[in-house]
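Please describe what follows:
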Amino acid sequence: MVKITITGFDPKTWDLIFDGDGVQFTRGEREAKRKEVVKWHVNDDSSVFEILIYNKPSPPSPSTNIWEELPHLDALSKNWKGKVSKTAPNTVKWWYSIDWIDKDSNKHTYDPKIIVNTPLG
């Protein structure tokens, strides 16, 4: 499982700050294997109060649907999850957007990506 934790945002750029496996990053780029579940977790103390994850309408390059289960809100929480398809092409990038609301009810958009990196047998 790939866990992407939203820990906050940069107040100068409004870029979200992520933690993945104990490593903080702001570019939002993560790798996932075929058939792997990807979960986005919003820390309660992150000052990010609501998120919406969706396919980016006009990425820098064409975005391929990599999902067996599209990212969706995880049962009565503000966290999201999706499952990468077993037939997702190798090394393909899925460009997506996260719309989010800060503690002052201001809306922002951030554009990370998921890369399918390794085929599974």
